[in-house]
Design a protein that fits this description.
This protein has 191 residues and is of the alpha/beta class. The chain is built from 7 helices and 9 strands. The strands form 2 sheets. It has a 7-stranded mixed beta sheet with strand order 3-2-1-4-8-5-9, sandwiched between helices. A two-stranded antiparallel ribbon has the order 6-7.
Length: 191
Amino acid sequence: MRFSIVTISFNQGQYLEQAIRSVLSQSEDVEYIIVDPGSNDGSRDIINRYGSRIKVIYGPDRGPADGLNKGFMLATGDVFGYINADDFYLSGCLARVNKAFQTYADVDIIYGHGYICDGQNKMIRHFRSDTFSLSSYSFGAGIVMQQSTFFRRGAWLRTSGFNIHNRTSWDGELMVDFARAGLKMRSLNIN
């Protein structure tokens, strides 16, 4: 199973290298795409050091949702995921996700939990994703940690992608689109 991971980054140089290393150090087959609409803080130098290990989209976009759409349009993997430049994956993360997709072959979207860390990587708290449903989401629950959400390529293709007009919760809206398309979701209760 091949993963396509997209990171959007705008002037996040102080965190970016850790995000890159966390993706590229995974044991699974990973296609990594970074979208940078015009950083001027040294981010591009960091990205360029990794050469062909990263696919890069440089150029303006119409915000984070548009940047993610551009990244996923370039993606060729079987399973898609996305993390921000100031986030990182723990070792073995994608191996666990791969195993989960093999175990639950009928599931389209898998999401889990994570940790909120400060700027020095000190864990502040554990974040537990809620069980997602349209009814819980409509009442302000059903919050899912975007960094631990992965979906099959076919699930992505059944949506219109991220809504570029939604400036605050494009990831939540994507989950709604998945649910409205009748796609099957599963939460992984792995700490």
